């Protein structure tokens, strides 16, 4: 029920965010190509909402339910850790897939399937039509000019997917170690880090902000001089995810004591 309510909230948010685009499409009587996803993930407000949803999705980590001791006894701690890792990966894929799917469905009935960006996205990127129709996000010229729709959507999906897994593992590890929702607090910190850096610190600090590294527009322009590139983003998520998974598996080899009331120590 908790996950279902999250998906409903995210779905309503995406629909309301894209509604002005459908109004614009209806006004000019031109169909919309179904390529909203990469533009939504390049909007910092959307990313705060999406990644806050990811924190909520994994806030119950390390997922120790009533059958925890029975499962550990039957499968072993290492296999239990592996199961939780695969659960985080699967739920991350489902969550980001839902965002992608909803970003397309929300454009109905004005959607017009096309292999290119189409007139609507091109007009929003190159004119002030977005301001006139109160569209709450920016359609970045860099994305339209450099990437094809399929490339932008695929890359944005993979970066978003990696970031959600990253947050899930961070929450899992720190909740597991401390037996308190410390991981949730740390995850929330990284969600807000993008905005904090934008207002207070040098752009170079974006190198440690996973949410920033999911945004294609942040990996261009003057930010490139600080090392913010698509290659760096891929290396950041690739290396850090391997390390985080390794830490999770290491936790699975440790011994933990169980108190009389079922509380886990160590």
Beta-strand share of residues: under 5%
The number of distinct helices, counting runs of at least 4 residues, comes to 11
Shape: globular
Main-sheet strand order equals: 1-2
Distance between the termini: 32 Å
The total beta strand count reads 2
Mean pLDDT: 89
Q: Which structural class fits the helix and strand makeup?
A: mainly alpha
Oligomer: single chain
Helix proportion range: 55-70%
Rg from C-alpha positions?
20 Å
Task: Write a brief structural summary.
The protein has 266 residues and is mostly helical.
Your description of this structure?
By secondary structure, the protein is mainly α. It is built from 11 helices and 2 strands, in the order αααααααααααββ. The chain has helices at residues 2-28, 37-40, 44-57, 68-75, 77-105, 118-126, 129-132, 141-146, 149-178, 182-200, 230-251; strands at 257-258, 264-265. Strands 1-2 form a two-stranded antiparallel ribbon. A hairpin with a 5-residue loop joins strand 1 (257-258) and strand 2. Helix 1 (2-28) runs parallel beside helix 5 (77-105), helix 5 (77-105) runs antiparallel to helix 11 (230-251) and helix 9 (149-178) packs parallel to helix 11. The longest helix is centred in the middle third of the chain and has 30 residues, at 149-178. The model is unreliable at 256-266 (pLDDT under 50).
